[in-house]
Amino acid sequence: MKFFFFHLMPYAALDPDYDKQHNSAWVTLPNTYYDPKIGHQLYNRYLDEMEYADELGWDGICVNEHHQTAYGLMPIPGVMAGALARRTKQAKIAVLGRALPLLNNPLTVAEEFAMLDNITGGRLIAGFVRGIGAEYHAWGANPAESHDRFHEAHDLIIQAWTQPGPSKFEGKHYHFEYVNCWPRPYQQPHPPVWIPSQGSRETIEWASHPSRKYTYLQTFSPVSALARFVKMYHEAAARYGYQATNEQIGWSMPAYAAETDEIARREAKPHVEFFLNKLLRMPQEMLLPPGYLSLASMQGILAAKKGISVGPRTMDDVIEQGIFLCGSAKTICERLEKYQQEIGFGHVLPQMQFGTMPHELVRKNTEIFAKEIIPYFRAKSAANPTADKARRETGLVK
User: Fold this and answer.
1) Alpha-carbon Rg of the chain, whole angstroms?
2) Would you say 117 and 80 are in contact if contact means Cβ atoms under 8 Å apart?
3) Per the domain annotation, does 154 fall within a domain?
């Protein structure tokens, strides 16, 4: 199991009373709430935290893309990845990801990612996403075209990376006479592709196709939903005639580790509840606009995540649902091991900073994971390298 330090880079100084006048921290929240001097401090602090994870030996660090929101200050994740490319030496850098349907020219991503891959000597992981519904409001994009534009943009980028140029590309949304990516990617035929998702059936079917076998990442979901969507991935792979491995599955969640369960809960509570009830706040029609999901996917996601977005949420709620991992190193190891054995996933992407969590607690959280939790799973993997195969054969992973 590999561990990737995930950071949203939120605007942690957001006025907690903003919701007395505004119904969302996304799209419609006036940017007068943002202070550039505070932003300067936060950006540099957050980069320091990610670089520290590299120093401590995490397998990877993750940045991502969101627009017009206090939830995450990375509208252009390649800027953050570029800043990290030279300052980090060992960790993979996962851009999770670029929202392909929003782009007028996907070749800019092919070039951007190829540059990052060259600078890092092959440490880049290319994340492609459709982007959540709020991004379509922010960009004035048509959510009903989301799937078509995503697939076409993906095909164009892969062509740019793998076919000798110049070549032509003729699609419904994109037309290029000259596809000729300079520079070419460092990793051949191209960087690993990961697909974060909330559980769209179409995305799972597409990612698991034998021509791709992309790593699928389930994000911010109850453990019951994680199990459901991982099962869906394995079933899709079986229909395609092959057996998916744990390395094709990842799980991202906020996590906090401390000396004891009691200390962890006390230290995490105000910050995770700010994250849940202030930064995640948005109306349902902004999250899932008409046309964004098929009816089958919409029904599946609502059923799997029933109850997690109704009313104010508490830390106890999300711990019980398995959305948030919190406790001592021993407690987190036990829970992660249980979930991994029951569900099967090869990549864990804990969100080490959330809400208003200050720098000193982020460093503490990062250190405990690096010194007590990650080594536990690395030792188990070294002791039993065929565990994944054995779990599949015994039916624990289906």
Assistant:
1) 20
2) no
3) yes
- In tens, the pLDDT along 155-212 reads 999 999 999 999 999 999 999 999 999 999 999 999 999 999 988 899 999 999 999 9
For residue 37, give the CATH number of its domain. Answer: 3.20.20.30
Q: What is the pLDDT of residues 59-114, one digit of tens each?
A: 999 999 999 999 999 999 999 999 999 999 999 999 998 999 999 999 999 999 99
Which amino acid does the sequence have at 71? Y
- Say if 376 falls within a structural domain: yes
**Domain coverage including residue 308:** 2-393
- How many structural domains are present in the chain? 1
Residue type, 269: K
Q: What residues pair up with 382 in beta bridges, in sequence order?
A: none
Give dist(CA 257, CA 104) in Å, integer: 42
Q: Which tokens belong to 170?
A: 């003729």
pTM: 0.93
What is the SS3 assignment for the chain?
CEEEEECCCCCCCCCCCHHHCCCCCECCCCHHHCCHHHHHHHHHHHHHHHHHHHHCCCCEEEECCCCCECCCCCCCHHHHHHHHHHHCCCCEEEEEEEEHHHCCCCHHHHHHHHHHHHHHCCCEEEEEECCCHHHHHHHCCCHHHHHHHHHHHHHHHHHHHHCCCCEEEECCCCEEEEECCCCCCCCCCCCCEEEEECCCHHHHHHHCCCCCCCEEEEECCCHHHHHHHHHHHHHHHHHHCCCCCHHHEEEEEEEEEECCHHHHHHHHHHHHHHHHHHHCCCCHHHHCCCCCCCHHHHHHHHHHCCCCCCCCCCHHHHHHHCCCEEEEHHHHHHHHHHHHHHHCCCEEEEECCCCCCCHHHHHHHHHHHHHHHHHHHHHHHHHCCCHHHHHHHCCCCC
Q: Is residue 398 part of a domain?
A: no
